[in-house]
Write a structure and sequence with these properties.
The chain has 250 residues and is α/β, with parallel strands linked by helices. The protein has one domain: 3-Layer(aba) Sandwich (Rossmann fold). It has nine helices and seven strands; from the N terminus they run ββαβαβαβααααβαβα.
Length: 250
């Protein structure tokens, strides 16, 4: 299938189109994140992989679109957009909320006959593990902003611009609601391998919560830990990118 035969989409971003790449890597952002977070990943992996980053509604060039605050609804919408691009082997990388979404999208791709090469689940506990006391999405603006700053995953320039930061609060709040209200619905596990990546001091994921990813696939499940917190990626990007390159090539 060529690019010209695919319908135009606002959901997917190809920063470095590589039609001849042997594999496609779909990247799903964290809560409050956008497709541009994965621009460096696209640049580093081209031409070994055709990197396609997902752009959720309610941010950047989609800021005037209604946000989607439900993981399964998002997964339904995203998987429909991805399927026309599954004309070659695909892999999924998701961080935080993106990892949960990656799991739900992978379930839908497998149901449609596309078995991902790998699901990279970064910075997120297993789908079957949830915490009842998470209500950040319902907190006042000041508390939500404090949480964002504490997680250290937002561009410092954005954090320094109070007006800009408040303009993206609706998208952040919707993403947090999606992540915090998600509840796993038991069903057949994935068959694709899962690579679980976490920071050693991430308060969002305990060792036990991460270990439970093994129950969500009949394939191999491998664990990787890196010094750092929830956004360990910012300090270990080259190492993580090399891991992705190695796994999708293999």
């Amino acid at each position: 299938m060529t690019t010209s035969t695919r319908p135009a989409t606002t959901w997917l971003r190809r920063f470095h189109p590589t039609d001849q790449a042997p594999v496609r890597l779909f990247c799903l952002p964290h809560a409050g994140g956008s497709a541009s977070y994965y621009f460096p990943v696209s640049r580093a992996l081209t031409p070994a992989a055709d990197v396609i980053a997902v752009q959720y509604p309610g941010r950047q060039d989609r800021r005037n679109e209604p946000c989607v605050d439900d993981v399964r609804r998002l997964a339904d919408l995203i998987s429909v957009e991805m399927l026309p691009w599954c004309d070659r082997p695909v892999a999924l990388f998701g961080h935080s909320l993106g990892a949960t979404l990656g799991f739900e999208v992978a379930l839908r791709l497998e149901a449609a006959g596309t078995i991902p090469l790998t699901l990279f689940a970064s910075g997120r506990r297993a789908p079957s593990r949830h915490r009842e006391n998470e209500h950040v999405h319902a907190s006042p603006d000041a508390q939500l902003l404090s949480t964002i700053r504490r997680m250290s995953g937002t561009d410092p320039a954005v954090l320094a611009d109070e007006e800009l930061l408040r303009s993206i609060l609706p998208a952040i709040r919707a993403d947090y609601k999606a992540a915090e209200t998600y509840r796993y619905q038991p069903g057949p596990p994935l068959t694709c391998p899962i690579e679980v990546l976490n920071g050693t001091t991430d308060p969002e994921v305990t060792e036990t919560e991460a270990a439970a990813w093994t129950t969500h696939t009949t394939g191999p499940c491998t664990f990787h830990t890196y010094d750092g917190g929830h956004f360990y990626l910012n300090d270990h990007a080259p190492t993580v990118i090399n891991l992705i390159r190695e796994r999708v090539a293999r």
